[in-house]
């Protein structure tokens, strides 16, 4: 089932796909969710206890009352190196922390990177994996940054605004005077 979650993010609502195993998909816009496979996530939730849990946890996170969403994850839309890197990120980089693309590549053990050229390729591959993360926010790809700055985020300038907003909420970036997050 799909759950629509209201957010204070620059992209607005999120769409969250929930299966009997857990959250399988989360996209910052309905358009982002449209590219995900159909199947068990087709019907819209109304009154479902899983939907209520998703909405409640997201609301608590976005108001700063919760640091982790702590919802079960359904990893079926991931595999291989992608799943290894995403699981490593989800399990080892907590709220308010960041990690570089290269550090995550090394920590995940998914790549053999003996020389500098291979390490650079592994870091770029991790960047691509972050861009294909089907479980955004729950697997916190916003916490993965470049060695020399914030790095990229899907969706161009709006995507970067989402990344900055989330990193500011989590305390990894200092708020600017115009930041409209929870007080």
TrEMBL record:
InterPro entries: MethylDNA_cys_MeTrfase_AS, MethylDNA_cys_MeTrfase_DNA-bd, MethylDNA_cys_MeTrfase_DNAb, MGMT_N_sf, WH-like_DNA-bd_sf. It catalyses: a 6-O-methyl-2'-deoxyguanosine in DNA + L-cysteinyl-[protein] = S-methyl-L-cysteinyl-[protein] + a 2'-deoxyguanosine in DNA; a 4-O-methyl-thymidine in DNA + L-cysteinyl-[protein] = a thymidine in DNA + S-methyl-L-cysteinyl-[protein]. GO terms for molecular function: methylated-DNA-[protein]-cysteine S-methyltransferase activity. The keyword Transferase applies. Keywords: DNA damage, DNA repair, Methyltransferase, Transferase. The keyword Transferase applies. One of its GO terms (biological process) is DNA repair. This is Methylated-DNA--protein-cysteine methyltransferase. It comes from Streptomyces bingchenggensis (strain BCW-1). The lineage of its organism: Bacteria, Bacillati, Actinomycetota, Actinomycetes, Kitasatosporales.
